What we know:
By secondary structure, this protein is mainly α. It has helices at residues 3-30, 37-41, 45-75, 85-94, 104-116, 122-153. Helix 1 runs antiparallel to helix 3 (45-75), helix 3 (45-75) crosses helix 5 and helix 3 (45-75) runs parallel beside helix 6. The chain is elongated, with a radius of gyration of 17 Å. The termini are close together. 27% of the residues are buried.
Amino acid sequence: MTQGETDVLHAILARLDALLVALDEDAEALGTLPRDTTEFAAMDRGRRVASRALLKSVEQTEDQLARLFRLLPKLMLVETRGWFAQDHANFAEKLGILDDGFAWTAIIRLRNRLVHDYPLAPEAQLDLLTQAHAAIPLLTQTARSAQSFVANGGLSQ
């Protein structure tokens, strides 16, 4: 592994550490997830800010994991030319980082919606928040599994 690759790997792992903290803090600041658009509209300023922070933390966590999923096979000298996101998820599943590579597709779609969609309707906003909140356990488990894989596989040295 080159020094540059090591630096990138360590930067991704450090970002994941920070993002796991952010996910916990954002979810705690949001409190109970609104059950409907009435509760969503009634959130105070702090909860509205926390909901936007949570959306961003979910998006960034998926992004960093996707970067790690692309980096790991290269570090393991696996040819990835022509691979798509699903191929990287399937490889992460083979490594034991993901339980189900196909389930990761929903996380990828959610991240793409968080990055590219700007819903104005409260129903759509609440839907994204609900999906993002539901993704936290999988993102957290995947990040921890990836960190463990790297640490136990000796890739981070």
